[in-house]
Amino acid sequence: MLPSLIPLFPLPNVVLFPSVFLPLHIFEPRYRQMLSDALRGDRIIGMVLLKGRRDDIEEPPPVYPIGCAGLVSHAETLQDGCSNIILRGMQRFRVIGEEADRAYRQAQIEPLPEPASDAIRVEVRQARTQLETLLAGRFEAGGGAAMLPGDMADEDLVNTLAQYLDFDPVEKQALLERDDTASRSRALIELIELRALATQPLAGLGPQ
Fold first, then answer.
1. Of 16, 122, 155, 161, which is the most buried if we count CB atoms within 10 A?
2. pTM
3. CB under 8 Å to 122, separation ≥6 — which residues?
C-alpha cells in the first residue's frame, strides 16, 4: 500500500511502469536530498512525466496527473556525492495535490490499483502471443535479435515493452494511463502497428 504523501521525481522523458526496473543517476542537490530522505524512510519515489522540459523548483511546471511509484531496490553513492539507483515499479497513482515544504516536490496521491480478473489474464495472454510474433519480425527487420524473455509473466512483459520500446514519452504516458493491463496491451499493439516499426530498427529492452 502506498503512503498518501510521496516524493516526486519529475522527468521530461521517463515513464515508469509497475514491476519494471529503471536505472537512474541522481545528481541535483534537491534530488540527492530526496534520495537520502527516501532511503531513511520507506524507499518510495514517485516518477511523473513533466509537461515542460525542465523542473524549475522556483516555478514548478505541471506534471501529468498519473505516475508510478517505485521502490529503491539498489543505491550506490559515488565519490562526488551523486548516486546510481535502481527503482522497481510498484503501483500507479494519481496526483491529488502538492506540498512545498521540502527542496524537492512532494505529492498527495491516490493509489490506482490495476484490476486483475480471469478475462483480463486471458486477453493479456493472447496479446503476448501477438506481441511476440509482431516484434520478432520487427527486430529481424531492424537487424537485431529479439530480446523478449520467455519466462517473464504476461503482465510484466507488456509493461516492460511499454517502458523500453522506442516510443515518445507522451505515448508511453498514454499507455501508463490505461486502466488495466489488457487495455494497455491492446494500445501497445496498436501503437506498434501505427508506428510502422517494420521499417525502423528497434532498440533492445532495458534492464530486466
1. 16
2. 0.88
3. none
Cell numbers placing 164: 523500453
Same domain, 107 and 136: no
3-state secondary structure of 200: coil
Contacts (Cβ under 8 Å, ≥6 apart) of 16: 22, 47, 67, 68, 70, 87, 89, 163
- Cα gap 108→103, rounded to integer Å: 16
Bridge partners (DSSP) listed for residue 111: 93
- Polymer length of the chain: 208
Residues 65 and 24 in one domain: yes
Q: In 3-state terms, what secondary structure has residue 178?
A: coil
Distance CA 27, CA 22 (A): 16
pLDDT in tens, 38-76: 999 999 999 999 997 666 656 778 999 999 999 999 999
Q: Is 98 helix (H, G, I), strand (E, B) or coil?
A: strand
Taking every pair of C-alpha atoms in the chain, what is the biggest distance, in angstroms? 51
What's residue 136's pLDDT?
A: 79
